Amino acid sequence: IVDAFGRLLAGAVADADLPIDQLDILSPADRAQLDAVNDTAHPLDPNLTLTALLETAAHSEREALVFDGESLAYSELHAKANGLAHELVAAGVGPESRVAVAVPRSLELVIALLAVLKAGGAYVPIDPDYPADRIAFMLADATPTLLLTNKDSMLPDAGVPVRVLTEIPTAAAAPEIAIAPANSAYMIYTSGSTGRPKGTMVPHQGITNRLLWMQHEYGLTTDDRVLQKTPSGFDVSVWEFFWPLIQGATLVMAKPDGHKDARYLAELIQREQITTLHFVPSMLRAFVAEPTAADCASLTRVMCSGEALPRELANQFLAVLPSTGLHNLYGPTEASVDVTYTPVVREDGPVPIGRPVWNTGVYVLDGNLRPVPPGVPGELYLAGVQLARGYWGRSGLTSTRFIADPIAGHGARMYRTGDVVRWNADGELIFIGRADFQVKIRGFRIELEEVENVLARQVGVTGAAVIVREDQSGDPRLVGYLSPADVDLDQVRDELRAVLPEFMVPAALVPLDDFPLTPNGKLNRAALPAPTITVGGRAPANPTEELLARIFADVLGLPEVGVEDNFFSLGGHSLLIMRVVNQVRETLSVELSIRALFDTPTVAQLARSLGDAGSALDVLLPIRAGGSKAPLFCVHPAAGVGWVYAGLLRHIDADRPVYVFQSPGLTGDHPRSVDETADRYVAELRKVQPSGPYHLLGWSFGGVVAQAIATRLQRDGEQVAMLALLDAYPLADRGPIEFTPEQALAAVLDSLGIDPGADALSSADAFARLVDAKSPVAGLGEDALVAMARVFAENTRMMTRFVPDVFTGDLIHVRATIGNSPKPGEWSSYVDGRIIGHEVAATHGGLLGPAPLGEIAAVLKETK
After folding, report:
1. With a threshold of 0.90, does the pTM exceed it?
2. Which of 118, 314, 318, 797 is at 20 to 30 A from 43, Cα to Cα?
3. Residue 410 is a catalytic residue
4. pLDDT tens profile 291-333
5. Residues 86, 327, 695, 844: which is the catalytic one?
């Protein structure tokens, strides 16, 4: 510091007119050290592409890919990718075209990614579990030539041609496409400060440099087995997918959502003898806390990135698995995954993010873009071959983040990361924090301004702010603040979940009368109060509720939890879900799915879903009993179970009760006709809501019954405010439809959006498919599935004999566009009013999937 001050004074004396912030304080030794760190030049083939790298192992009979008990040899994998690539080329895919890929983790996902690259295109990963609004924006923004998906991932209709990956052809050779290193290989969307995500275009030359450096540094062999567990929409997945496939190693894929389950990962690592995998620090913490993690002796190397790696966590990992190398890497999506690296050893002090990879420059600069001395905080800028091309369709934003490189000159660019770092004495970078409002939560990159913009758009909100708080050590969370204080928080939270991915929804919402301000009138973020969590409601009413309430309280760090308190409203998030899953498994000996907690987020709801089949099959079952608004009554499809509507709770007003009708035939008392069914349901409905206006919703067979209920209510002088039918049609003129018991089982699975795999199934096979699909109906057991098949066959027969009465009023109709569904006009003879049609890109059986439900809920909201 004394030497630097001397140079500052000398510079001032030498040029008294030079502004003080432009005086040079770097010593020759400092400059030499920085030059040496950035001396990363390494020769690369200027014509090399990721596609060419992947072809090097195309014809081997070694095992390439493993997923859920299935595997593909390299020759099989490439033959399928070649066949699909030829289809893509025929559909117009080529260099600089984009192909959206919305496929859950599976063999088909890897085949799709390889096929896009072989066709010369850039793949755009889309998470099928994102809210419908976000998916629709990404598809409209990316303007892909084609959308690749599977039947379990039905997405909003954005005017994009769809290829459903049910059957994939094979071909001996890939298409002959001229791909340049500067062409885009993939485009990944990240959070955007404008309130909308932005697509980052990464060229082949960047990711090939990254992968070849990684191979040089870590030396993967054909004996290695790499675990792929990062969602494809995040850039770490890129090296997980492709590094093993260019080296002839084996890529083992975790099940969908498996990346959140530390116990499952430990079991998978041991079973598949995984040698290489990646963790974000928050998930690494959960993994280290898993008792069976110490048995993962096959691990050779663990990569860590996505967040700052705490020293205590690094040392804890190295104590649990002392023979496994831990490597800390750093890099944004805009720079081909990672640009710095360091091996981690047990010691004190902050864990460095390291030094640059091949052909990469890292600069720590001041506000005038001048290098700062070692030890001095500055903003990190990146340069070199790995830089992305920029943001798709955002030239203004690109020009502010990708700027001219004054150090390299000659037209070179550098990327402003927004990260504040410093050099340590060893020539490695130490991460300090951010210079803007971008944060990392559980490895996900979030622009706080995007969340603030969405929060500010909600009805009744006049002011909004979002910050990260770490009120519990090691558990940073988003907290949203909004005014006025009397805003409906439940409604705001539901609206946020309908627009933002789960990881971007604030864990807590804090209403304020006034925001704290600094003396100059700006928002004083440091003075924003900690959220207070209010719990209450009724106490547990049975042993299951009592145990679940204790588990919720323990996981959330609360003294108690009411049975009607929402897990997510109390601060729950995806990693905490896994702690609930594990404790439920240990305490109740029940295997709970991650999805189950989203669908039933209170103790009461979860207890009902885990309860006995008798109560679960009540004719009228409340799936949300509380609320001051008029209830929504949902009528079961032909299989008779109303649980299929549980996903609606995420999307509709939290103050609206939801009841589902279930067939009495499930417990042996089947009605003889649709008329008798409707009469029974009207009687049950009046017990809950004696008078109108009524809101009715029915899917498939349930739509026919809902229309019959509506006509009976009108005949009794009651008002029907809403009648909404989901892919439901009158079948009186179609003739009788008969099923054998085996055919009925297959039809039930198909009606639930589950591939039966055969036209006729045994009950054991059908139930196994139900369990594999993680359907909430699986909780009822095999006997209940047999009853559902019987009910399905009888309801179908009843429907073909039923002639509806005329409903007076408007009919809302949602048609599934994938398949051979009839037109809404089939109802014209039975409706005295408008038929308001909507179309959703889904199969009949997939209509109540997460993405279609978001669109359906939006349609229902239009009707007051």
Report:
1. no
2. 118
3. no
4. 899 999 999 999 999 888 999 999 999 999 999 999 999 999 9
5. 844
